[in-house]
Structure formats: structure tokens, C-alpha cells
Amino acid sequence: MATSLKQAVHKNLECPVCLSFFKDPKNLACSHTFCKGCLETLLESHGNKDLLLCPTCRGETSVPGGDVGRLQSNITVRSLVEDVKTQAKVCFRGNQEDKSLERKWSKCKKHPNYDEECFCLSCNKYVCCKCAISEHVKNAHTILEEGAYETAQKNQVEELAFKADAKIRDVIKYVSSVVDQRKKVHNLQEQGKDEIDETFEEFVQILKERKTVLKNEVEHGRLGKLKTSLGDMEESGRKQTKQIKKVLDLVMNSLKFPLQTEAVTSHKAKCQQLEELLRQIGPDKELPRRTAEEGERISFRSQGTDELQLGQLRYTPEITAIRIEW
């Protein structure tokens, strides 16, 4: 029960956009809370600098002077986040102290009177100074002091974390763009339905069956496929963000404890996995806009009352074919 409560607290202290603890949490008019930095990123991706759309409910919030910092701060959430982080640091220090003592007394199996204070890059393991001189240096192996090796590993992780953070911000902007374009297609759907309803009122009862056919075409035809395609793009972007954060957390967590010989290979594999994720080709950022533009070329046109057909959906093809696959 204690674990479930802890998980529930952590989940409610995470920003729905960046999936991390809130940083300078700000309230929107709809009462949803997000990081100040995340809201600034969302505002930059919109054309209107004075209006924010809530990523959760799509509610509108005015931003005075385009300054997100002027929105109301969520003091309660900020205090809770600070308390949780403080408690986590205390636990982390305690674990580090215990592990540091354990690492200090890590002895060489061949020379029990010597600590394993060196690391052999060629053999990928910790060794004592006597083994380093008598065996490894003799065979032209590269030897580093334990502190120098662990510092190099930390620097590598920090560089990966920086790249991952940049990648995540880029994907967040992309997801925000997909959400906006998907809403545009949704509005086109609703507009088509409204026009169909307005025209239908002018006709007699016998046109109801035709009305249903047309609305189904709007809902499940080309516009529906475009909306589904944008939904797939959004989900793919979110999955990519979640995957990067998951692997990054594994890499960062591996540094909370001294790297024993048996853990070095696992740590390197995690770092390589993260690097591969960061090298993956990003999504086509123009595809959501082009997909929505294709939806704009689908409109409802009345055929008048003579044929009693109410109207039909007409698609205006583009000169160059568009691919909506990802």
C-alpha cells in the first residue's frame, strides 16, 4: 500500500507534457497544471502568442503580453515537488555513502592486500595497481585511475542526457504541431456536419437516409482516415519520447552506484542503446500540416433541391500526390 501511495504521489506531480516532475508549475484557466517551460514551448509553436490551448482538454487560456510567467503559479504543487525531491536526495546520499564504503574495501582477488583502484580499458574491468603493472601494462593495456574512469563515464552520460533533452524538446514541439493539425481536421469534420444539417432542414423527410450516408462518409471516409493518420503520428511521437526517457533513466540510475566489474558491460550497453535512439531519423515535421491541408480540400457542396440528393463530399486533388504514411 505504501508503494502504491508513493507511485500515486509521483504520478500526480509529473507534468503531462514532459513527463517529469513539475518545474515552476503554472495553472491554466481550466485548472490544469504544466511546467512553465513546457507552456512556453507550446506557445512558441502556436501562431497566437496571447492564447494557450490546454494539451489535456484543449481549453483556452489568455497569456497577458505573451508572458507565461505572468500566469498563476501552483504553489501547492511546487511545494510538494520540492519536498519529494528533498526526501529523494536524502535517500540517495545514504545509499551512496553505503556503496562508497563498500567500494573502498573492494580487494583484488590475486593480491588481497591491494584495493582495485585502477581500471583497464582493454580488459574492461577494475584491477589493483600491482596487477596493472605486472600484467596489464606489460601487455600494452590502457590503464586509468578509478576516479578518472568514473569521471569519464559521468561526462559521457551528461553529454547523452543533454542530447536526449534536446531530442525530447524537439519531439514535444512536433507532438504539439500534430495535435493542432488534428484539431483542424476535426473542425473540418464538424463544419461538414453542420453544413449538411443546415441544408437538410430545407428538404423533406425522405432525405434523412441520404443525410446519414453523407455524415458517415465524413466520419469514416477520407477525412476520418486523415484524422486517424494524425492520431498515429501523435502516438508515435509520444512513444518515442517515452522510450528515450526510459532508457535515459536506466543510464542515469546506473551511476547512482559505483560501477562494479560485472556492471560495466550492462552500463555500456545502456549508453549504446540511448545513442542509437538519439541517432534515429526524426519524423517528417511537415507531414501533419500537409495531411491537414489535404483535409481542407474536402468540402461539402449542396446540389440544390431539384435532385433531392442533399449534396455530396467533393475532393479537390493536389497536383503532387501526398504520402500520409509514416
From TrEMBL:
Residues 15-58 form the RING-type domain. The keyword Nucleus does not apply. SUPFAM superfamilies: B-box zinc-binding domain, RING/U-box. Keywords: Metal-binding, Zinc, Zinc-finger. One of its GO terms (molecular function) is ubiquitin protein ligase activity. InterPro entries: TRIM45/56/19-like (IPR047153), Znf_B-box (IPR000315), Znf_RING (IPR001841), Znf_RING/FYVE/PHD (IPR013083), Znf_RING_CS (IPR017907). The keyword Metal-binding applies. GO terms for cellular component: nucleoplasm. It comes from the Eukaryota. SMART domains: RING (SM00184). Pfam families: zf-C3HC4_4. Residues 103-146 form the B box-type domain. This is Uncharacterized protein. The lineage of its organism: Eukaryota, Metazoa, Echinodermata, Eleutherozoa, Echinozoa.
